[in-house]
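Subgroup meeting minutes
Present: P.N., E.W., G.H.
Scribe: E.W.

1. P.N. recapped why we're keeping a running log of single-chain structure predictions: easier to compare across weeks, and new members can see raw inputs and outputs side by side.
2. G.H. added today's entry (160 aa).
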Amino acid sequence: MSEEFTVVPVAHVVGGRVEPGDDYWGGSRAIIRVDPEQFTEGAVVGLDAFSHIEVVFRFHLTDPTDLHAEPRRSRDNPDWPAGGTFAHRNMRRVNWLGVSRCRLLKVDGLDLHVAELDAVDGTPVLDIKPWFGVMGPRGEVREPAWPAEMLAAYYAAPRE
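Output recorded in log:
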């Protein structure tokens, strides 16, 4: 069942945070710079009509030895249940892929100015999609309480 394929970044994150972290992404600003070698400004025509975008990126700073095949507790919190790789949203993934939904502030040529993108300076961006509200979850959303507890400060403003 193993299959390999090559993915080429379409853009890179410029600016914003330089260190990954678990919390305090609120108020962060960055630019997603679309690769001018691959794309013209025609690639972003119409994107400015959207308030949010979905960004697929590669966790490029992840330590390849920091993978956990066995179930583990988020942030090593003993109060939260152990979960396998696919019950987490962190960087400890075989393909090191992340997905973020962020606010699109402005389109300036091939520069997409964004807020609260939880990817750091230099991050390779693999795809960019406008967020369609109608494509969000259908039906009732069910989840345990621990993600809301864990992420209470995720989009909070950074502490001084």
